[in-house]
Amino acid sequence: MTESQVTEIRVTGENDYGVLVGRGILDRVPEVLGERVAKILIVHTPTVGRVATELRDALQGQYEQVLLAEVPDAESAKRVEVAAFCWQILGQADFTRTDAIIGLGGGAVTDLAGFVAATWLRGVRLVQIPTSVLGMVDASVGGKTGINTTEGKNLVGAFYAPAGVICDLELLESLPRNEVLAGFAEIAKCGFIAEPGILDLLEADVARATDPTTPEFKRLVELAIGVKARVVSEDFREGGLREILNYGHTLGHAIEHAERYQWRHGVAISIGMMYAAELGRMAGALSDAAVDRHRRILTSLTLPLSYPAGRWPGLLATMQRDKKARAGMLRFIVLDEIGKPRVLAGVDDSMLQFAYQEIAS
Ligand SMILES: NC(=O)c1ccc[n+]([C@@H]2O[C@H](COP(=O)([O-])OP(=O)(O)OC[C@H]3O[C@@H](n4cnc5c(N)ncnc54)[C@H](O)[C@@H]3O)[C@@H](O)[C@H]2O)c1
Ligand SMILES: O=C(O)C(=O)C[C@@H](O)[C@H](O)[C@H](O)COP(=O)(O)O
Ligand SMILES: [Zn+2]
């Protein structure tokens, strides 16, 4: 694929903004930033330093000041000390409410940049430019921003909508293959919870589906963003429906915490989805065939499906801090069938452990 159309997927409801998907589309940044912006802070990781510098150079003549904030890579960016480093730059450069922040990087950076934008002066303009598959299909799209704490994943944050999101598929050229595949955990998630067409595309030819240069890849990115945009448009603040986007995350986040945030999110979520599938089967509805489909698809993406047996007590303790828990009661998203998610609450610990035994290594 040499040329591609620019697709715009809109998030509506409480907020209204577009998610652009195309190739070589960073010239759309000023249009998405909108008028009146004078100063811009581009928050990025070292891995996309060259893109950040080129973007700054391209914007420099058009704005009063364009600054770079290079932050630590991956989950190390999602710490309060790093947010404070960004706040310090904004303070020292006198950023006002008409100035803007650009998040440029993987999901960890867009989560951090979003949180900084939400908190600086109680909210300044934010444009997200995700550079990983996961950032494009999920993290940058729905306005969930946040950082981790010692106690758990994403425990501090805000719902804060961007002015727009720019998914330039050319930026994926430098993304390592294992990161591409980790991002596909969230694409598969959208397939399991709402869009079985995603699963069909993955099953038809996983090599083409996961090759960022193919039309199939672009289609999958658009389908996954479409699922997220539809859900977020209906329930931005997670009053109910939005919880389905957390499929696989109750255990997945506990695994990330157990691994001290050294694992990729998508890798942990893969195990979490396999667990949720087993739980769905035990809760009485999900068929053996659907559970096997989870296993086949996640395996075809070379994602893991199991976690050591002895880790269960620690995982169970961490899951108590999951944001879906209510009054000390854990709640999971499970499927009755592919495309039919629901909340499963009030499950006793023995059933939870029984399901874990199915994925324990
Ligand atoms: N806010 C949300 O709704 C939401 C949704 C899903 C995930 N998340 C969060 O997103 C994070 C995971 O995102 P991720 O998988 O992108 O991880 P990440 O941000 O850690 O990026 C993965 C790795 O890829 C590198 N990278 C990114 N783009 C690159 C590029 N173009 N070239 C070379 N290297 C590149 C990064 O520097 C990093 O080393 C987690 O913190 C997760 O909690 C948030
Ligand atoms: O957008 C959502 O809502 C999601 O749950 C998407 C998830 O993929 C994402 O990992 C999110 O950050 C998890 O949110 P949390 O509220 O469980 O921290
Ligand atoms: Zn996720």
Automatic annotation (TrEMBL):
UniProt xrefs under SUPFAM superfamilies: Dehydroquinate synthase-like (SSF56796)
One biological process term in Gene Ontology: chorismate biosynthetic process
Cofactor note: Binds 1 divalent metal cation per subunit. Can use either Co(2+) or Zn(2+).
Enzyme Commission number(s) from the entry: 4.2.3.4
Keywords in alphabetical order: Amino-acid biosynthesis, Aromatic amino acid biosynthesis, Cobalt, Cytoplasm, Lyase, Metal-binding, NAD, Nucleotide-binding, Zinc
Gene Ontology molecular functions: 3-dehydroquinate synthase activity; metal ion binding; nucleotide binding
Keyword Translocase: no
Pathway: Metabolic intermediate biosynthesis; chorismate biosynthesis; chorismate from D-erythrose 4-phosphate and phosphoenolpyruvate: step 2/7
Stretches assigned to the 3-dehydroquinate synthase C-terminal domain: 183-325
Reactions this protein catalyses: 7-phospho-2-dehydro-3-deoxy-D-arabino-heptonate = 3-dehydroquinate + phosphate
Binding site for Zn(2+): E186, H249, H265
UniProt cofactor(s): Co(2+); Zn(2+); NAD(+)
GO CC annotation: cytoplasm
Positions contributing to NAD(+) binding: 73-78, 107-111, 131-132, 144, 153
Keyword ATP-binding: no
Enzyme class: lyase
Residue ranges of domain 3-dehydroquinate synthase N-terminal in the record: 70-180
Subcellular location: Cytoplasm
Functional summary from the UniProt entry: Catalyzes the conversion of 3-deoxy-D-arabino-heptulosonate 7-phosphate (DAHP) to dehydroquinate (DHQ).
Family per record: Belongs to the sugar phosphate cyclases superfamily. Dehydroquinate synthase family.
Name of the protein in its database record: 3-dehydroquinate synthase
Organism name: Leucobacter luti
